[in-house]
Amino acid sequence: MRFRHPDGSTVHLAYCTNVHPAETLDGVLAQLRDHCEPVRRRLGRDRLGIGLWLARDAAHALVSDPSALRGLRTELDRRGLEVVTLNGFPYEGFGAEEVKYRVYKPDWADPERLDHTTALARVLAGLLPDDVTQGSISTLPLAWRTAYDERRAETARTALLTLAERLDALEELTGRDIRVGLEPEPGCTVETTGDAIAPLTLIGHHRIGICVDTCHLATSFEDPHTALDALAEARVPVVKSQLSAALHAEHPHLPEVREALAAFDEPRFLHQTRTSLALTPDRAGGAPVAPGLRGTDDLGEALKGDALPDTSPWRAHFHVPLHAAPAAPLTSTLPVLKAALTRLVGGPHPLTRHLEVETYTWQALPAELRPRARSQLADGIAAELTLARDLLTDLGLKELP
């Protein structure tokens, strides 16, 4: 979906296909038929943007076979789909029964991460619509925080500088400007947008910036306006933003709130949980994970005894559907998304032109909330995109055909 910003630029809205598990090119092609085109039809649009997630094997197949890449581009066109952004964070196995910590491997100190991201950039250059010259890729925020020392940090910086050089060369060859954004995530070396400023300033290349995920932003209790103003002041480019909402518990000390949260404690994904010390007089307990925060690596850990202070709200890294907040006594951080979006595209010029709805946890929701059929999933994704569309038009953007 495309929108015209009041300054005349085009803002793209897509939904991320990492919600549909597929490791191979054949699986990606099936996604387009079984999921993406049905979502487009529900929205009544001739064209729908999708943020492709391409696992290692699918990316390798496309970059090593030009005819396969042309075939994917043809299939996208045939089904009324377009791609301007890729999700390059998960490397493989994102549809496995247990993902958890595996999603952070390989990290930017491992050569496989550079090779994979380079392949994704080459693929994206071949998938961009004819009238679009800029593409974006979101990626791991350097590494998970453990076992990341200065030696590995230097290796990661070198890899990102190498990537920037390759992206420069790719633009010279193809005329396509591909940019990569580190995606801050709780528990990682770069947990917050503030953590991203120093390494990105050190790299100092306009093709390497940040991907602002509004679920992660909220989970870390970052104020959207403060965070985005700091990025602008540091001249860190916002390559893309993922529109997502976290799980919010206002009164985690109550037994009924703990019971409601426990329904979201599931075995597939990691649900880092945070509370803000700035909001609580009780500063005991909980691992210090970032300035002003206490947290646990997973929701189940937070629910055990006094692992976290419970005198102020908790937020958990669980991407809940944008249009359907959990039932009371829980809610979502949709207000944080709205505030971030206002700052991202509501001003005189957009801070980013690539927006991506990214709720990959539909099948990890409590059983009574999960879609039971493919059609229900398509209905839900279409409802999320409708909400995002309405937020954009409320900010003065005009939907394009």
From TrEMBL:
<dbReference type="InterPro" id="IPR036237">
    <property type="entry name" value="Xyl_isomerase-like_sf"/>
</dbReference>
<dbReference type="GO" id="GO:0008270">
    <property type="term" value="F:zinc ion binding"/>
</dbReference>
<keyword id="KW-0413">Isomerase</keyword>
<protein>
    <submittedName>
        <fullName>Xylose isomerase</fullName>
    </submittedName>
</protein>
<dbReference type="InterPro" id="IPR013022">
    <property type="entry name" value="Xyl_isomerase-like_TIM-brl"/>
</dbReference>
<dbReference type="Pfam" id="PF01261">
    <property type="entry name" value="AP_endonuc_2"/>
</dbReference>
<feature type="domain" description="Xylose isomerase-like TIM barrel">
    <location>
        <begin position="62"/>
        <end position="233"/>
    </location>
</feature>
<dbReference type="InterPro" id="IPR018246">
    <property type="entry name" value="AP_endonuc_F2_Zn_BS"/>
</dbReference>
<dbReference type="GO" id="GO:0016853">
    <property type="term" value="F:isomerase activity"/>
</dbReference>
